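ok so for the tutorial part 2 we go from a plain amino acid sequence to predicted structure tokens. step 1 is just haveing the sequence, like this:
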Amino acid sequence: MVQAVLKATSSLDSQRHARMEVLKEKVEEEEAAEREEAAERAERGEKTKRPMEVRRGETTMTQEMLRDLERKLSEIEVSVPEKILTFTKDTIDTSKLPLSYQSNTLKEEHLLQVADNFSRQYSHLCPDRVPLFLHPLNECEVPKFVSTTIRPTLMPYPELYNWDTCAQFISDFLSMVPLPDPLKPPLYLYSSTTVLKYQKGNCFDFSTLLCSMLIGAGYDAYCVNGYGSRDLCYMDLTREVCPLTMKPKETVKEEEKAPPKKYAIKPPRDLTSRFEQEQEMKRQEAIKAEEENRRKQEEARLLEQENAKTDPLHGLRVHSWVLVLSGKREVPESFFIDPFTARSYSTQDDHFLGIESLWNHKNYWVNMQDCWNCCKELVFDLGDPVRWEYLLLGTDKPFLSLTEEEDEGMNDDDDVENLGKEDEDKSFDMPPSWVEQIEISPEAFETRCPNGKKVIQYKRAKLEKWAPYLNNNGLVCRLTTYEDLELHSYKSMQPEMDRVMEFYETARVDGLIKREETPKTMTEYYHGRPDFLSYRHVNFGPRMKKLALNSAESNPRPMVKITERFFRNPAKPADEDVAERVFLIAEERIQLRYHCRSDHITANKREFLRRMEVDSKGNKIIMTPDMCISFEVEPMEHTKKLLYQYEAMMKLKNEEKLSRHQAWESELEVLEILKLREEEEEAHTLTISIYDTKRNEKSKEYREAMERVLHEEHLRQVEAQLDYLAPFLAQLPPGEKLTRWQAVRLKEECLNDFKQRLIDKANLIQARFEKETQELQKKQQWYQENQVTLTPEDEDLYLSYCSQAMFRIRILEQRLSRHKELAPLKYLALEEKLYKDPRLVELLKVFV
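step 2 — the prediction. this is what the tokens look like for a chain of 848 residues:
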């Protein structure tokens, strides 16, 4: 067995030793460079010291050098790093922890001795391997074996029955704390109850809690002590694509072509040009190839940047994660779970660089396989003692099947004796977990994230999560995507800023699809308009300063240029159908470009120099040929006439006014939309489940009403047990014995008083009924008199009042009817009670 262990671990030890030698050489080179630099500085200091001694009298130069030194030092700025989240023993209150946290049982002490013996043998056989992570200290500074820290627990929430949702809950619920030393396992391993209480922990705390919950849910899960990449150890997802941004692959179903009918009509011949189709296909392929080439260049540049940031501790960073083996819970293939991110990885993934050991709540295994190729060639057959050295024999993993020759070799007496001694040493059952039952309150399960919020940075994306009802607007999750890796973004609800608004074209009369706005421009896209307008782009100039409020309504931005584009109007000839229209307002020019005919290679163009209708002297300006510049493919006679050009220019002037007015209305619409968005952000009414009695006001009121009814019922029961004769007995002299006539008089007075109370209660209910009826009649009379002038809001208030009033009237009517039915019964019950009263029973027998 010893030879097999040494042979299996030789390559892993050599790899570990080589990594440490490389790191040692780097450190020695850096130290040598620092010593040489220090020697050079010392030599320069000696050379500059001599002339300073000669020039002792020249204090001016010394002061200048000091000022220059102070100036250079003042230019050096030091950025204070952000506070790193820590989780130490000093921050934990251990005064109220149970006894199992503060001491060990005899069985636990025995297990620690077995673990120490195993560690000594392991260090002797594998001197180049790092010490095993066996029994770290807990929060009470008591050494606890790692397997006893796992407490298998099945949580009462169905959402935590599956591994993915369970891992996601732990990732959201806890805050990540990096290891104090990235090259060593932690000295402390806290209980899962403490980790849940403080909602933070390192990778070993995450893995222990996740493994406890997965084992409780029926998975074959193990905590792993190994080595991971820097991104894995520091929960850095900036190189990973957010799963929410990945679009699922759409499966396109091929439509089955119906078999051709024998007597079907032949389709018309395809008269489209194959040459044009081929040219279009080549053009599209060239565009795709250019985009693909650009994407590959960008990926190559990013990969080069990432490779330039190599990790000097690659392969040496300690990390802990969870291994889920196949078999239980219908898991088809073994996989890893990173507890920080709740993401599952294949056992072949490059993020996991090696494994030292793993454990569950029953046993502990040491990896004896070579990790030269990360974890890609590891075999997770824990029953193979050559690949996995176990601590205790009480494992439920099957042993490796042996061949007949190996089986015969195992029958030697020496091997049997040695095996018997080894089995005797390892035949020890794992003690129960020292950790208390893991519990998560419904409030904590609902809140999830620490302080109710968690932010995760992805590649070109940021995911924010909030607890339910934490935000007034009901926001629980927000995904923000970016175009660059630096995540530059600026959001503002102020007008005249960068924004894009998208609309439903079918829900608008003007057919607006999208509006893009910048501080200097506004672009609108249209579809389905009767005037065939498809695009409008407005350029704005600097706003004029006025005393009025600086808003688009009181002081609009001056428009410098308006560009409009139109779809093809089939009702017009192409050379008379405008394709693009540009209003150069500042330059007083209008440019037109018409659609190109199918048999032409260029389109008609026309430009008008728009002048004022009258000059400075008030004289009317006459249309001249130089006011219209035209380019026509096929010139027409009527287009050269000044009357045609004048009418066209006057029509364009009116259309320019209309375009400017529509652009101004678009600005006002933006302001209204932003104002509405602000109002919507401020005023929200969340729908709360009726089962949420803490937040649902109606449910809370109903519960309080039920409690009030129960309290009133209790008071009635107490009242029923009261002494009705006490007020009347108090009128008699104390200590005097009752006579028969006094007893009869007491009975009659008590019954008469009770009768009057019943009548008063009926009159009170009747008075309230009449009052509600009169108020309702007055309200109905008021409605009849003012029905014509009432607004819809007033009518709604009137109907609401009538509904409530009728409800109160019906309740009072029911109470009065019920009181009339129960009053005689209550009277007879009191009379019978008085006849049976022990103070009157003997005196009233004669009158019965």
